[in-house]
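Run: sequence + glutamine -> complex structure.
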Amino acid sequence: MNNTKYVFVTGGVTSSLGKGIIAASLAKLLQERGYSVTIQKLDPYINIDPGTLNPYEHGECYVTDDGAETDLDLGHYERFLNIPTSQANNVTTGRIYQSVIDKERRGEFLGKTVQVIPHITDEIKNRIQILGNTGNYDIVITEIGGTVGDIESLPYVEAVRQLEWDLGENNTIVIHLTLVPYLAAAGELKTKPTQHSVKMLMQSGVSPDILVCRSENEISDDIKRKLALFCNVKQKDVIQSLDAETIYDVPNLMLDEGLDSVVLEKLKLSDVNPPKMDKWNNFLSKHKNPKEFVEIGLIGKYVELHDSYKSITEAFIHAGSTHETKVNVRWIHSEELNPETIETELQGLNGILVAPGFGDRGIEGKIAAVQYARENNIPFLGICLGMQMAVIEFARNVLGLKDATSTEMNPETANPVINLMDEQKDITDKGGTMRLGAWDCEISTDSKVYEAYQNTLISERHRHRYEFNNDYKAQIEAAGMIATGVNPKTGLVEIVELPNHPWFVGVQYHPEYKSTVLTPHPLFVNFIKAALEQSKK
Ligand code: GLN
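>> structure
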């Protein structure tokens, strides 16, 4: 039996209130007080994981070291806490049902009728306690996706109710995040939506211990008293969460409001050590007071929804802060790039990043962007599909293999410089079957990547089915594009570079997933450094 405490975060009134950021901010404060904390997200949808979801539906799919394809909130958790998450940190209804149904098929329910209560709720409770049972955490924060009152959230709320009962007083608390809207016509903040949403939660047998109220305006003591009275909490347990200039301000805002102290008091944990926020604040002050400016073009096909590239834009913020530099992202739709538009679209950029992606929509634009970066000596970072496009561009325009492409785009091509990995050839299922998670890569010392990592063996996260075709390696290297990183066991090319270019790096893996506030990713740091140098030319 260990003494892990559980904090549940539910959402009311509307979605998109930023439960993930509140959870991550609270976790940060508790961590900097010396507690070991992790955060888990329970998603009520039926997909097994977001890996099969279109980014327009759900934003970026984040990938963990152990190869889980997860909600983008896990990216926030890692960026805030600087510790890795895993398969256990993101669970969907699909996964819950799948394991219950698998057990049923194995006969594990011994002839019983399998039902939402107790079987689904038991499985949810197990999934919540898996992290606590590792013994690695003093506190597990579990964020329940969706909004209280949704049909699909009901089993989760019931599981929380039961766990509160199972684990007893002072071991669990519920934080309800809600919206307190300002009605301009009335000139007032309105508490009724919160009252209704708390009532809804209480109908399911769960009373919030703390209300975190998102609001555009200061919540007066009067309003707090009203919220407290009608929602059955103490006035000091009503915490306001005003719109912030950056998500990285939220831990300090929550500290000022005393959220961490209230949580510790309710869990009967000591609050004597104040959070040590100096490193965090050092990052923040450099982020907020930049001395330099660079503009990076982000070439992708989902640019209408910036959340599709969340980890990349956050990695720019971390790397920018390192150089006290504001990194402005120019969002460029790959479908809009063609020989006529390229000059106007890309002109003036200090760096070009070609983003990950799937399928052939927009790839000619990506290839054109690579060519522009290569020929105009603009610092270039290609990630996953972006690296593959760099190889294709080089094969076409330097080696003269005009029909070079990836077999993802044309399975019949005569020059498949990128082709399907052998291990993928017999796979037909789409979900969870890519080359996922952390793999090693050996780096040659004479390279831009070595300058960045200062290490010859690295481990980075992956999410792909196609790879650099080693049949073309000798030819490509002889023409000047060098494979500076390979998987030591399989020889799979992980990194390509152009030594005759100021900074041109393509990586098969996703460095963006491992960039955090306190450990900005070295490749992003050096990419921004190269962009800064470019800006001074
Ligand atoms: N579509 C490419 C592949 O599967 C690249 C994937 C990606 O960019 N994540 O290999």
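>> summary
The chain has a mean pLDDT of 96. Residues 26 and 254 are 7 Å apart (CA to CA).
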